[in-house]
Design a protein that fits this description.
Shape: globular
Organism: Brevundimonas naejangsanensis
Number of helices: 3
Strand content: over 45%
CATH architecture: Roll
Helix content: 10-25%
Oligomer: single chain
Number of domains: 1
Protein name: SnoaL-like domain-containing protein
Number of strands: 6
Largest sheet: 6 strands, mixed
Structural class: alpha+beta
Distance between the termini: 36 Å
CATH class: Alpha Beta
Pfam family, one: SnoaL_2
InterPro entries: NTF2-like_dom_sf, SnoaL-like
Order of helices and strands: HHEEHEEEE
Radius of gyration: 15 Å
C-alpha cells in the first residue's frame, strides 16, 4: 500500500487516491493543520496542488514499524519541490508516518503525520 500511495501521489488526482489508498475516515496531521475525513483531506491536497501545481513529492527510506495482518505502520522521509505562481521555487522535507489498516479485505491509509526535518534541530 505504501508503494501504491507513493506511486499515485504525483498524479495530482485525488479521485485516484481516494479510490485506491485513502480511507474515508482518514486523519492527516501537518505542522500547521489537521484534516479529518475524506472531504477535509481532499481540500488539503487540492490546496497544496493549487499553490504548487507542478509539485513533485517523494517518500523515501521507509521503515516498517508494524506489519500485522490488519494494521501496519511505516515511518519515512519525504521531500517536495515545485514552483509557486510567481515563478519562485519552493522545496522542503522532513519525516512522516503512515498508518494503514485492512478493512473489508482492502488496505487503506488511515493516518498520516508529517513533521519538518529534525535532523538539523538545535539541542
Amino acid at each position: 500500500m505504501f508503494q501504491l500511495y507513493r506511486g499515485l501521489i504525483n498524479s495530482h488526482d485525488f479521485d485516484l487516491l481516494e479510490r485506491h489508498v485513502i480511507a474515508p475516515d482518514a486523519v492527516f496531521v501537518f505542522s500547521d493543520r489537521r484534516e479529518e475525513g475524506i472531504a477535509a483531506v481532499r481540500a488539503g491536497f487540492e490546496r497544496t496542488w493549487s499553490i504548487l501545481p507542478d509539485e513533485v513529492y517523494q517518500m523515501t527510506d521507509p521503515k516498517w514499524l508494524l506489519d500485522g495482518p490488519d494494521a501496519a505502520a511505516c515511518a519515512f522521509r519525504y521531500s517536495y519541490s515545485g514552483t509557486l505562481a510567481d515563478g519562485r521555487p519552493l522545496s522542503g522535507g522532513g519525516q512522516g508516518i503512515n498508518l494503514f489498516r485492512r478493512a473489508e479485505g482492502r488496505w487503506r491509509l488511515t493516518f498520516e503525520q508529517l513533521t519538518p526535518d529534525t535532523r538539523t534541530a538545535k539541542a
